[in-house]
Write a structure and sequence with these properties.
Structural class: alpha+beta
Number of strands: 33
Number of helices: 24
Shape: globular
Strand content: 25-35%
Radius of gyration: 27 Å
Mean pLDDT: 85
Strand order of the largest sheet: 12-11-17-8-9-16-13-14
Distance between the termini: 83 Å
Amino acid sequence: MSRRDQMVDKIKELMYEPDYIRNIGIVAHIDHGKTTLSDNLLAGAGMISADLAGDQRLLDFDEQEQERGITIDAANVSMVHTYDDEEYLINLIDTPGHVDFGGDVTRAMRAVDGAVVVVCAVEGVMPQTETVLRQALKENVKPVLFINKVDRLINELKLDDAELQNRFIKIIAGVNKLIKNMAPEQYKNDWQVKIEDGSVAFGSAYHNWGINVPHMQKTGITFKDIVAYCNEDNQKELAQKIKIEEVILGMVVEHLPSPKVAQAYRIPKVWSGDIESVEGQGMINTDSKSPLAVMVTDVSIDKHAGEIATGRVYGGSIEKGSEIFFVGSMSKARTQQVGVYMGPERINTDAVPAGNIVAITGARGAVAGETITDADHKIAPFESLEHISEPVVTVAVEAKNTKDLPKLIEVLRQVSKEDPTIRVEINEETGEHLLAGMGELHLEVMIYRINEKGVEVDTSEPIVVYRETIAGTATNVEGKSPNKHNRFYIDIEPLPENLMNAINEGEIEEGRVKGKEEAKKFQDAGMDKDEAKRVWDVYKHCMFVNMTRGIQYLAEIKELLLEGFESALESGPLANEKAMGFRINLMDAKLHEDAVHRGPAQVLPAIRKAIYGAVMLAQPTLMEPMQRVYISVPQDYMGAATREVQNRRGQIVEMGQEGDMSTIESKVPVAEMFGFAGDIRSAAEGRCIWSTENSGFERIPRELQNQIVKEIRQRKGLNPEPYGPDHYLG
């Protein structure tokens, strides 16, 4: 029997032993060495040659990933490792580090219980390190730390013992600070990573060696020895003595939880149902015989097998050929095959039990975030996945050949299913198909995939997505219904920063307000007690607050008012862009006593026009998406790099010095970032490392607003000048 077949048999056996399973994600900033580390773990399991580990990048099996040298899709692999004479099933997800593909990290974190956070010893804790750690901690995923590329500190930067130690202390302190700030209250201290207990490891994934304190005690190898091996250019021998996979897997087994341990505290966080119910207890206990509960985290399209849904089995077992029920779409399907991943291939099994990551063929209609259960047993859904960033760049896509139009619609549907952070919409006025993504690279990759699926497309120049808000206030704004029998009086004001932050951090959830718990959250975020009880809706970072008292019939039209409020925010009066960041107070209303005269055709336009008029009275302001740009460049090129940023309306936030490298942190509008990759390379003659992170929306400079509003309106086929308040309130 081949080694592969032995491993497949062993995987099928260990699947039913939740104590011996570890579901882990490898997360990091771009180019810090995640996929290289994954290669080492695969080599340790005998899945690839040890000589190729670090070069093969087995989990970057997509053509675009190989060409660009980055991870684009989260890749799953199941493997068996022996640690202290016990065999463990490791279900690993290698995640992307590029900011444009952060949605994959969010989805992967729902499927795993622990994360190996990889930090480059040279660059230290970077912005995307912070983002991926936040994504992990938000899902109650426990971290351990691997400090990679230590050989470069010794060989390239020539750091002495004291400098090495300071560098490590700084990185560990940085990671622990993030954990303290972002971990759930009860784990802020327990999840701190420490050198002494072995939850921090050091090494070089590229040169296949790693070490932590328990391993030092076991092998007798010290940091002095490591420095000597690196100086003598003998890392190959070092890799034989301190094998990286043994260190990392020892750390994973010792410090990251099994599904049996993790599901007890993760289920109350990720599932909306009653924990005391049969299915709730089944998930808490990782019971393979309880009702089926699967959370879909990813959907991909296979040329031969069709739609493949990846998900975490939290309760019960999913069997091949069984009928399943989608809780979100209220539809059924029949599984054709179920199994686990081994990198680019899938291993089919008869069933996959609780505590594992499953690949399901035949789950037609599944989308990321869907809850799957038995066809005859309905359960409450899992909490929806919240992506940290949102699409900020759009392109119009059209088929080169008109006959491909029906196929284009199908392919766009597939692409948005495979990557839920992509938004697809049809512009009613122009008939264009609009594709919105996280950035230039994200859209480039998606366009490549559309072409790959057999539809040749032309695309427009990238268009930036703006937001509308207000800089002032307006009071007693009257909105009249078309029949003039209903009148609404509203005030509008900017939403205070503390409430905006609470919505951004997820402390205040968006949606229509149902109970008293929400009022408490509004109060905690700094809202007046009486007003907190009066919030009706939180939508697109805006609030609708009912400040009226004793208005007859108001309760009957509440849903219509909120529908009108939400639809007004979808396209603002300034440039037909989405609105954000203000509060609407309903101060008074006069309603017709006859229900026939206060239906949707009267209420919806009245409240919408009142909101549009109020926005135009309250200093309407356009907001543009911003990116933080981090550049590391030799000192000689620092001037050229800062000029490149400033020429793009960028502001320098901070500058620092690391050895002979200068670091520049800046904030640049997304609209000015097109072509930046080529320009910064030229400016620094290829000798710079740079990365970006989305940084929310900021007000556009006053002097540019009119011009940009005019351009957006003309592009959308609208009158170049926005209408004044009288147009809506007359």
